[in-house]
Amino acid sequence: MAQPNGTNGHTNGTKPSDHIPATHLLASFAANAQTTHLTAALRTKVKEVLLDFIGVTVGALTHADSTVPILTAITALQGPTVTATSPGVCTVLAQGEPRFLKQYAGLLNAALGHSLDFDDTYAPGTLHAGVTAISAALA
């Protein structure tokens, strides 16, 4: 197995013959990540992206035409038996008590975070990375 290298001590350079699933590597990285591994500039950027996501998501709740249809559809998909006291329920931003299963909370947070299309943009990749990553992390 490859030895830790780089300044953050993480293992890089695994080979296909190591047979370590990509999901395991990603989960291990995420589980062991610490804010001390981030530079001051990166911590500032994370805060900026998170605040942007929250602002755009909360704004979408009252200003996006798609909010009511999305909430209605996800509530119907989830079914009437899920309540705030059901095991495993999660919060959708600005929706009060947790009342959505994690897959639907993640979907709703992502859909609302992108509804107004003001979410962060990574220009070289032409994508909105924050909305999906933050939504998954919150769920």
Automatic annotation (TrEMBL):
Annotated signal sequence range: none
InterPro entries the UniProt entry points to: MmgE/PrpD_sf, MmgE/PrpD_sf_1, MmgE_PrpD, MmgE_PrpD_N
GO MF term (any one): lyase activity
Residues in MmgE/PrpD N-terminal domain copies: 26-139
Protein family according to the UniProt entry: Belongs to the PrpD family.
Entries under PANTHER family matching the protein: 2-METHYLCITRATE DEHYDRATASE, 2-METHYLCITRATE DEHYDRATASE-RELATED
Protein name: MmgE/PrpD N-terminal domain-containing protein
